[in-house]
UniProtKB/TrEMBL annotation:
Molecular function terms, GO-annotated: ATP binding; ATP hydrolysis activity
Name of the protein in its database record: ABC transporter ATP-binding protein
Domain ABC transporter: 2-227
Pfam entry (one): ABC_tran
PROSITE patterns attached to this UniProt entry: ABC_TRANSPORTER_2
Entry keyword Nucleus: no
UniProt superkingdom: Bacteria
Alphabetically ordered keywords of this record: ATP-binding, Nucleotide-binding, Transport
InterPro entries in alphabetical order: AAA+_ATPase, ABC_transporter-like_ATP-bd, ABC_Transporter_VariousFunc, P-loop_NTPase
SMART domains: AAA (SM00382)
Amino acid sequence: MIKISHIRKSFDGLEAVENVSLTVNSGSIYGLLGSNGAGKTTLLKLLSGLYVPDEGLISIDSQPVYENPEVKEKIFFIQDTPHFLPHYTTKQMAQFYESIYPRWSEERYQELVAIFQVDIHKKIHRFSKGIQRQVAFILALSTLPEVLILDEPLDGLDPVMRKKVKGLLIDDVAEREMTVLISSHNLREVEDLCDFVGIMHKGQMMIEKDLDDLKSDTHKVQIAFKSGAPVPPGIFDSVKVLHKEKRGSILLLIVKGKEEEVTASIEKYQPVIFDILPLTLEEIFIYEMGDVGYAVENILG
Ligand SMILES: Nc1ncnc2c1ncn2[C@@H]1O[C@H](COP(=O)(O)OP(=O)(O)OP(=O)(O)O)[C@@H](O)[C@H]1O
Protein backbone atom coordinates (compact mmCIF):
# COMPACT_ATOMS: atom_id res chain seq x y z
CA MET A 1 0.00 0.00 0.00
CA ILE A 2 1.25 3.46 -0.92
CA LYS A 3 0.63 6.15 1.66
CA ILE A 4 1.42 9.79 1.06
CA SER A 5 0.65 12.12 3.97
CA HIS A 6 0.68 15.91 3.86
CA ILE A 7 3.53 16.12 1.42
CA ARG A 8 5.07 19.42 0.35
CA LYS A 9 7.74 20.22 -2.19
CA SER A 10 8.79 23.64 -3.39
CA PHE A 11 11.33 24.83 -5.96
CA ASP A 12 12.75 28.34 -5.45
CA GLY A 13 9.71 29.45 -3.50
CA LEU A 14 7.22 27.84 -5.90
CA GLU A 15 5.01 25.27 -4.18
CA ALA A 16 5.00 22.44 -6.73
CA VAL A 17 3.21 20.05 -4.35
CA GLU A 18 1.26 21.51 -1.46
CA ASN A 19 -0.09 19.42 1.39
CA VAL A 20 -1.07 16.42 -0.76
CA SER A 21 -2.21 13.17 0.81
CA LEU A 22 -3.25 10.02 -0.97
CA THR A 23 -3.50 6.30 -0.46
CA VAL A 24 -3.25 3.61 -3.10
CA ASN A 25 -4.35 0.17 -1.95
CA SER A 26 -2.31 -2.87 -2.97
CA GLY A 27 -3.49 -4.39 -6.22
CA SER A 28 -5.20 -1.26 -7.46
CA ILE A 29 -4.52 1.27 -10.21
CA TYR A 30 -4.61 4.94 -9.31
CA GLY A 31 -4.87 7.60 -12.02
CA LEU A 32 -3.24 10.92 -11.22
CA LEU A 33 -4.79 13.59 -13.42
CA GLY A 34 -4.38 17.32 -13.53
CA SER A 35 -3.65 20.50 -15.40
CA ASN A 36 -0.22 21.29 -16.86
CA GLY A 37 2.19 22.20 -14.07
CA ALA A 38 -0.17 20.79 -11.41
CA GLY A 39 2.65 18.90 -9.68
CA LYS A 40 1.99 15.36 -10.91
CA THR A 41 5.53 14.55 -12.06
CA THR A 42 6.94 16.09 -8.87
CA LEU A 43 4.65 13.86 -6.82
CA LEU A 44 5.75 10.76 -8.76
CA LYS A 45 9.41 11.70 -8.25
CA LEU A 46 8.78 12.14 -4.53
CA LEU A 47 7.09 8.75 -4.39
CA SER A 48 9.91 7.02 -6.20
CA GLY A 49 12.46 8.58 -3.87
CA LEU A 50 14.10 10.80 -6.53
CA TYR A 51 13.13 13.94 -4.59
CA VAL A 52 13.17 14.45 -0.87
CA PRO A 53 9.97 16.08 0.44
CA ASP A 54 10.19 19.40 2.32
CA GLU A 55 7.46 18.12 4.62
CA GLY A 56 5.27 15.06 5.00
CA LEU A 57 5.67 11.31 4.84
CA ILE A 58 5.74 8.79 2.01
CA SER A 59 5.67 5.10 2.73
CA ILE A 60 5.21 1.85 0.88
CA ASP A 61 3.93 -1.00 3.03
CA SER A 62 4.58 1.24 6.06
CA GLN A 63 8.27 1.75 5.23
CA PRO A 64 9.62 5.19 4.29
CA VAL A 65 10.74 5.47 0.68
CA TYR A 66 13.47 8.10 0.68
CA GLU A 67 17.00 6.63 0.85
CA ASN A 68 15.59 3.20 1.67
CA PRO A 69 17.13 0.62 -0.70
CA GLU A 70 14.89 -2.16 0.61
CA VAL A 71 11.78 -0.30 -0.51
CA LYS A 72 13.32 0.90 -3.76
CA GLU A 73 13.86 -2.72 -4.82
CA LYS A 74 10.07 -3.06 -4.90
CA ILE A 75 9.47 0.04 -7.04
CA PHE A 76 9.92 0.71 -10.73
CA PHE A 77 9.38 4.18 -12.17
CA ILE A 78 8.99 4.70 -15.92
CA GLN A 79 9.50 8.43 -16.41
CA ASP A 80 7.82 10.42 -19.20
CA THR A 81 11.07 10.03 -21.12
CA PRO A 82 12.34 6.57 -20.11
CA HIS A 83 15.98 6.53 -19.01
CA PHE A 84 18.51 3.96 -20.17
CA LEU A 85 22.25 3.79 -19.69
CA PRO A 86 24.00 5.43 -22.66
CA HIS A 87 24.60 3.12 -25.66
CA TYR A 88 23.18 0.10 -23.84
CA THR A 89 21.20 -2.60 -25.63
CA THR A 90 18.04 -4.11 -24.12
CA LYS A 91 20.05 -7.21 -23.19
CA GLN A 92 22.68 -5.12 -21.39
CA MET A 93 20.00 -3.12 -19.57
CA ALA A 94 18.38 -6.43 -18.57
CA GLN A 95 21.69 -7.63 -17.09
CA PHE A 96 22.04 -4.32 -15.26
CA TYR A 97 18.56 -4.53 -13.73
CA GLU A 98 19.07 -8.19 -12.89
CA SER A 99 22.05 -7.13 -10.77
CA ILE A 100 20.09 -4.51 -8.81
CA TYR A 101 16.56 -5.93 -8.58
CA PRO A 102 16.58 -9.14 -6.53
CA ARG A 103 13.16 -10.19 -7.82
CA TRP A 104 14.22 -9.94 -11.49
CA SER A 105 12.60 -12.76 -13.48
CA GLU A 106 14.49 -14.06 -16.51
CA GLU A 107 11.46 -16.12 -17.48
CA ARG A 108 9.21 -13.04 -17.48
CA TYR A 109 11.84 -11.10 -19.43
CA GLN A 110 11.97 -13.78 -22.15
CA GLU A 111 8.17 -13.83 -22.31
CA LEU A 112 7.96 -10.06 -22.67
CA VAL A 113 10.70 -9.93 -25.30
CA ALA A 114 8.67 -12.48 -27.28
CA ILE A 115 5.48 -10.46 -26.83
CA PHE A 116 6.99 -7.15 -27.95
CA GLN A 117 9.41 -8.69 -30.43
CA VAL A 118 12.18 -6.12 -29.93
CA ASP A 119 15.73 -6.73 -31.05
CA ILE A 120 17.51 -7.08 -27.69
CA HIS A 121 20.93 -6.65 -29.33
CA LYS A 122 20.24 -3.23 -30.80
CA LYS A 123 21.31 -0.08 -28.92
CA ILE A 124 18.17 1.32 -27.30
CA HIS A 125 18.84 4.94 -28.28
CA ARG A 126 18.60 3.90 -31.94
CA PHE A 127 14.98 2.76 -31.46
CA SER A 128 11.99 5.03 -32.10
CA LYS A 129 10.31 6.73 -29.12
CA GLY A 130 7.49 4.15 -29.06
CA ILE A 131 9.85 1.16 -29.17
CA GLN A 132 12.00 2.68 -26.42
CA ARG A 133 8.86 2.81 -24.32
CA GLN A 134 8.15 -0.85 -25.11
CA VAL A 135 11.69 -1.66 -23.92
CA ALA A 136 10.99 0.28 -20.72
CA PHE A 137 7.89 -1.87 -20.11
CA ILE A 138 9.79 -5.12 -20.80
CA LEU A 139 12.47 -4.15 -18.28
CA ALA A 140 10.06 -2.74 -15.70
CA LEU A 141 7.73 -5.74 -15.66
CA SER A 142 10.66 -8.18 -15.58
CA THR A 143 11.69 -6.75 -12.18
CA LEU A 144 8.28 -7.97 -10.88
CA PRO A 145 7.68 -4.62 -9.18
CA GLU A 146 5.30 -4.42 -6.26
CA VAL A 147 4.75 -0.78 -7.12
CA LEU A 148 4.87 0.51 -10.67
CA ILE A 149 4.93 4.27 -11.16
CA LEU A 150 4.16 5.52 -14.65
CA ASP A 151 4.39 9.06 -16.03
CA GLU A 152 2.37 9.35 -19.27
CA PRO A 153 2.92 5.63 -19.91
CA LEU A 154 1.12 5.22 -23.20
CA ASP A 155 2.57 8.29 -24.87
CA GLY A 156 4.05 7.39 -28.24
CA LEU A 157 2.62 3.85 -28.33
CA ASP A 158 0.43 2.88 -31.26
CA PRO A 159 -3.13 1.65 -30.52
CA VAL A 160 -2.16 -2.04 -30.75
CA MET A 161 0.73 -1.56 -28.32
CA ARG A 162 -1.39 0.56 -25.98
CA LYS A 163 -3.91 -2.26 -25.76
CA LYS A 164 -1.13 -4.78 -25.21
CA VAL A 165 0.49 -2.73 -22.44
CA LYS A 166 -2.83 -2.11 -20.72
CA GLY A 167 -3.55 -5.85 -20.80
CA LEU A 168 -0.15 -6.64 -19.28
CA LEU A 169 -0.66 -4.10 -16.50
CA ILE A 170 -4.12 -5.44 -15.68
CA ASP A 171 -2.77 -9.03 -15.63
CA ASP A 172 0.03 -8.15 -13.19
CA VAL A 173 -2.38 -6.27 -10.97
CA ALA A 174 -4.77 -9.22 -10.94
CA GLU A 175 -2.18 -11.99 -10.66
CA ARG A 176 0.44 -10.53 -8.32
CA GLU A 177 -1.41 -7.62 -6.68
CA MET A 178 0.92 -5.10 -8.29
CA THR A 179 0.04 -1.54 -7.29
CA VAL A 180 0.13 1.07 -10.05
CA LEU A 181 0.18 4.86 -9.97
CA ILE A 182 -0.29 6.46 -13.38
CA SER A 183 -0.07 10.10 -14.30
CA SER A 184 -1.76 10.90 -17.57
CA HIS A 185 -3.45 13.59 -19.62
CA ASN A 186 -5.13 10.98 -21.72
CA LEU A 187 -8.31 10.56 -19.76
CA ARG A 188 -9.89 8.12 -22.20
CA GLU A 189 -6.89 5.86 -21.72
CA VAL A 190 -6.98 5.85 -17.94
CA GLU A 191 -10.74 5.64 -17.77
CA ASP A 192 -10.84 1.90 -18.44
CA LEU A 193 -7.68 1.19 -16.45
CA CYS A 194 -7.98 2.94 -13.10
CA ASP A 195 -9.98 2.08 -10.00
CA PHE A 196 -9.29 5.41 -8.34
CA VAL A 197 -8.53 8.88 -9.65
CA GLY A 198 -7.08 12.00 -8.08
CA ILE A 199 -7.24 15.35 -9.82
CA MET A 200 -4.48 17.85 -9.02
CA HIS A 201 -4.39 21.58 -9.74
CA LYS A 202 -1.73 24.12 -8.75
CA GLY A 203 0.04 21.72 -6.40
CA GLN A 204 -3.09 20.61 -4.58
CA MET A 205 -5.30 17.54 -4.72
CA MET A 206 -8.76 18.73 -5.67
CA ILE A 207 -10.71 15.51 -5.69
CA GLU A 208 -9.80 11.93 -4.99
CA LYS A 209 -12.43 9.32 -5.63
CA ASP A 210 -13.34 5.82 -6.63
CA LEU A 211 -13.86 6.08 -10.39
CA ASP A 212 -17.12 4.15 -10.35
CA ASP A 213 -18.52 6.41 -7.60
CA LEU A 214 -17.34 9.49 -9.43
CA LYS A 215 -19.06 8.38 -12.61
CA SER A 216 -22.22 7.00 -11.06
CA ASP A 217 -22.63 10.22 -9.11
CA THR A 218 -22.67 12.77 -11.92
CA HIS A 219 -24.91 12.77 -15.00
CA LYS A 220 -25.76 14.75 -18.07
CA VAL A 221 -29.49 15.32 -18.43
CA GLN A 222 -31.51 16.68 -21.35
CA ILE A 223 -35.15 17.56 -20.85
CA ALA A 224 -37.93 19.35 -22.71
CA PHE A 225 -41.58 19.95 -21.95
CA LYS A 226 -44.62 20.25 -24.27
CA SER A 227 -44.13 23.07 -26.75
CA GLY A 228 -43.93 26.39 -25.03
CA ALA A 229 -44.59 24.96 -21.57
CA PRO A 230 -42.35 26.53 -18.94
CA VAL A 231 -40.05 24.42 -16.81
CA PRO A 232 -42.17 23.43 -13.80
CA PRO A 233 -41.03 25.25 -10.66
CA GLY A 234 -39.60 22.96 -8.04
CA ILE A 235 -38.45 20.32 -10.54
CA PHE A 236 -34.87 20.55 -9.33
CA ASP A 237 -35.62 20.87 -5.63
CA SER A 238 -34.43 17.36 -4.86
CA VAL A 239 -31.58 17.31 -7.42
CA LYS A 240 -28.23 19.05 -7.13
CA VAL A 241 -27.73 20.96 -10.38
CA LEU A 242 -24.08 21.71 -11.12
CA HIS A 243 -24.64 23.37 -14.45
CA LYS A 244 -27.72 24.45 -16.41
CA GLU A 245 -28.06 25.72 -19.94
CA LYS A 246 -30.96 26.24 -22.36
CA ARG A 247 -30.62 25.31 -26.04
CA GLY A 248 -33.85 26.20 -27.81
CA SER A 249 -36.57 24.21 -26.12
CA ILE A 250 -34.11 21.73 -24.59
CA LEU A 251 -32.67 22.17 -21.15
CA LEU A 252 -29.21 20.68 -20.67
CA LEU A 253 -28.01 20.00 -17.17
CA ILE A 254 -25.23 18.43 -15.21
CA VAL A 255 -26.59 16.98 -12.00
CA LYS A 256 -25.19 15.14 -9.04
CA GLY A 257 -26.98 12.28 -7.33
CA LYS A 258 -28.02 8.68 -7.76
CA GLU A 259 -29.40 7.95 -11.23
CA GLU A 260 -32.69 6.48 -9.89
CA GLU A 261 -33.30 9.48 -7.66
CA VAL A 262 -32.57 11.98 -10.42
CA THR A 263 -34.82 10.06 -12.81
CA ALA A 264 -37.67 9.81 -10.30
CA SER A 265 -37.57 13.49 -9.41
CA ILE A 266 -37.65 14.63 -13.04
CA GLU A 267 -40.02 12.03 -14.52
CA LYS A 268 -42.87 12.95 -12.22
CA TYR A 269 -43.14 16.25 -14.17
CA GLN A 270 -43.69 14.22 -17.38
CA PRO A 271 -41.19 15.83 -19.76
CA VAL A 272 -41.63 15.03 -23.47
CA ILE A 273 -37.89 14.50 -23.75
CA PHE A 274 -35.80 13.07 -20.93
CA ASP A 275 -32.37 11.55 -21.34
CA ILE A 276 -29.92 10.79 -18.57
CA LEU A 277 -26.37 9.98 -19.67
CA PRO A 278 -23.18 9.22 -17.78
CA LEU A 279 -20.36 11.74 -17.99
CA THR A 280 -17.05 10.58 -19.35
CA LEU A 281 -14.00 11.04 -17.15
CA GLU A 282 -12.92 13.77 -19.54
CA GLU A 283 -16.18 15.66 -18.98
CA ILE A 284 -15.94 15.26 -15.20
CA PHE A 285 -12.36 16.51 -15.34
CA ILE A 286 -13.23 19.59 -17.40
CA TYR A 287 -16.18 20.34 -15.14
CA GLU A 288 -14.13 20.01 -11.94
CA MET A 289 -11.33 22.14 -13.38
CA GLY A 290 -13.88 24.76 -14.39
CA ASP A 291 -15.10 24.82 -10.82
CA VAL A 292 -11.68 26.05 -9.67
CA GLY A 293 -11.46 28.67 -12.38
CA TYR A 294 -9.52 26.70 -14.97
CA ALA A 295 -10.51 27.45 -18.57
CA VAL A 296 -13.81 25.67 -19.12
CA GLU A 297 -15.01 24.48 -22.42
CA ASN A 298 -18.63 23.75 -23.01
CA ILE A 299 -18.85 20.17 -21.96
CA LEU A 300 -22.48 19.60 -22.77
CA GLY A 301 -21.56 18.96 -26.41
N1 LIG B 1 13.30 20.56 -10.89
C1 LIG B 1 12.50 21.63 -10.86
N2 LIG B 1 13.00 22.87 -10.60
C2 LIG B 1 12.19 23.95 -10.55
N3 LIG B 1 10.86 23.90 -10.73
C3 LIG B 1 10.30 22.71 -11.00
C4 LIG B 1 11.09 21.50 -11.07
N4 LIG B 1 10.27 20.46 -11.34
C5 LIG B 1 9.03 21.00 -11.43
N5 LIG B 1 9.05 22.33 -11.23
C6 LIG B 1 7.87 23.22 -11.22
O1 LIG B 1 6.90 22.62 -10.38
C7 LIG B 1 5.58 22.76 -10.92
C8 LIG B 1 4.98 21.38 -11.10
O2 LIG B 1 5.65 20.71 -12.16
P1 LIG B 1 5.35 19.20 -12.56
O3 LIG B 1 6.30 18.84 -13.63
O4 LIG B 1 5.35 18.38 -11.33
O5 LIG B 1 3.87 19.34 -13.11
P2 LIG B 1 2.98 18.29 -13.95
O6 LIG B 1 1.65 18.23 -13.27
O7 LIG B 1 3.71 17.02 -14.13
O8 LIG B 1 2.86 19.07 -15.32
P3 LIG B 1 2.60 18.58 -16.84
O9 LIG B 1 1.24 17.99 -16.86
O10 LIG B 1 2.66 19.86 -17.59
O11 LIG B 1 3.69 17.63 -17.19
C9 LIG B 1 5.76 23.53 -12.23
O12 LIG B 1 5.47 24.89 -11.98
C10 LIG B 1 7.22 23.32 -12.59
O13 LIG B 1 7.72 24.42 -13.31
